[in-house]
Amino acid sequence: MIANDPDRELVRRTLAGDSGAFGELVERHEAVAHRVARRIVGPDEADDVTQDSFLRAFHRLERFRGDSPFRAWLLQIVHNTALNALQRRRPEPVGDSPVTIEEPARERQPARELEERERRERLELKLRGLRTEHRAVLVLRDLEGLAYEEIAAVTEMPLGSVKGRLHRARGELIELLRTNSYDWELPE
Amino acid sequence: MSGDPAEPTAADLRLDEHLELLRSDQTGPRRSLAARTVRTARWQRAARAPLRVAGMIAAALLDGLGLVVQRGRRK
Fold first, then answer.
1. Closest residue on chain A to B6 (Cα)
2. pLDDT tens digits for A126-171?
3. For A20, nearest residue in chain B (alpha carbons)
C-alpha cells in the first residue's frame, strides 16, 4: 500500500470491521465522487451513483491492493458505476433545452449570480452531450485536476490514450459550444 | 490546462475560462451520504452470509428436484 496515502489508516480500520472509519472515508471523498458522478450522469442520478459506488467500494475493499491512492481506486469505481448507469438509460437530449432555475432561488439571487448559474447549467448540459469516454477524461482532468497517471488508473487506459482522448474531448466540447444559440465566444 | 502535450489554441484557452465556472463549483451532495451509506453497508454485510447460505440451499433443493423429475420421467 502507498505509504503516504492519507486514507491508509481508515482503509485498514474499515477492513478490521470499524464501520465508523468507512463513514469517515465517505465524508472525506463524497464531494469529489458526487461531482464526478453528477458530471457524467447528471444531477438526477448523481446521489444514487455516488452511494452505489461507496457501497461497491466497501464490499470490495479487500481487493484494494493499495498500489494507487484510495481516491483513485474509488474514482475508478465511480467512473464504472456512472458508465453502467448511462448504459441502462436512454440518451439525454443535448440541444439548447431551457435551463430551469427554481423560482424561490431566482427571487433571492442578484442578476449576475443568476446569469452565472444559468451559464454553468448550460455548460454542464453541453458537457453531458459529449461522448461518454470523452466526458469522463475531461471531467477528471479539466474539472477535477487529476494527473494523467491517475486518469489512466481510473479509466483503465494507457497514458497515451488518455492524452489523445482528452485532446479530442476538448475539441468535441468546443464544437458543441460553437453550434449553440448561446454565444460562448470561442475563436476559430 | 498546464502540463498538456499540445500547445493550447485560442479556443482551448477560452474553453478553459468557461470550465472555470464548473471548477469553482465544489459542491457535493446536498446532504451528506455518509450516515445512509454506512447504514446500508452494515445491513448488506450482515445479510450477505445468510443470503449466501439461503442461495446455496435453494440451489441444492433445485438440483434435488431436477434429479427427482428426471427419475420420474425415466420410470
1. A167
2. 999 999 989 999 999 999 999 999 999 999 999 999 999 999 999 9
3. B38
Nearest CB partner across the interface for B15, out of A23, A148, A173: A173
Chain B nearest-CA distance from A25, in A, is 8
Is the Cβ pair A185, B45 closer than 8 Å?
Answer: no
The CATH number of the domain covering residues in A8-178: 1.10.1740.10
Strands (E), chain A: none
The x, y and z cell numbers of residue A19, run together, are 464501520
Q: Beta-carbon neighbour count of residue A138 at 10 Å? A: 24
Residue A25 CA to residue A71 CA, distance in Å, equals: 9
Sign of CA dihedral A166, A167, A171, A172: negative
pTM above the 0.90 mark?
Answer: no
CA distances to A81, A145, A153 from A159, rounded to whole Å, are 22, 15, 9
Å between A15 CA and nearest CA of chain B: 12
The structural domains of chain A, with segments of one domain joined by +, span: 8-178
Closest CA to A46 of B35, B18, B30: B30
